Amino acid sequence: MAAIIFNLFVINKSGGLIFYKDYGTQGRLDTNDSLRLASLWHSMHAISKELSPVNGCNGIEVLEADTFELHCFQALTGMAQKIFVAAEPGTPGIDSLLKTVYELYTDYVLKNPFYEVEMPIRCELWDLNLALAVRRDGKTGLTGR
């Protein structure tokens, strides 16, 4: 059985949730829970940078639990500061998926003349290409539903 992506989040640089997508039936969150999780992740990420005993720490990249993993990609530009995915433990190819999602974000959201930075993402080309990327990466074990 292929591993599964549960959810995908994009958080702006101030910690606000600007995009959320459920995949499949497991791990579904209602609107309030998705907002809380995004805010909590943003705060934990920031605190981890401050508490790290290692200089130059960029925050939490992976949080592993028994039933899920959270993988985070932080953009160096500060735009869409964090993209993170909740997935089944052991899901391969998450890092490459996160980089692909960021490339799609820069191509279809940031270059969209009608998009206001820091605001929720409402872009049909982004949605379409994101769905294709998740489906395409299914070759490595990801199955977007």
UniProtKB/TrEMBL annotation:
It is found in: Endoplasmic reticulum; Golgi apparatus, cis-Golgi network; Golgi apparatus. One of its GO terms (biological process) is endoplasmic reticulum to Golgi vesicle-mediated transport. The keyword Cell cycle does not apply. Keywords: Endoplasmic reticulum, ER-Golgi transport, Golgi apparatus, Transport. Signal peptide: none annotated. The keyword Transport applies. GO terms for cellular component: endoplasmic reticulum; Golgi apparatus; TRAPP complex. InterPro entries: Longin-like_dom_sf, TRAPPC. Pfam families: Sybindin. SMART domains: Sybindin. Part of the multisubunit transport protein particle (TRAPP) complex. Belongs to the TRAPP small subunits family. TRAPPC4 subfamily. This is Trafficking protein particle complex subunit. It comes from Physcomitrium patens.
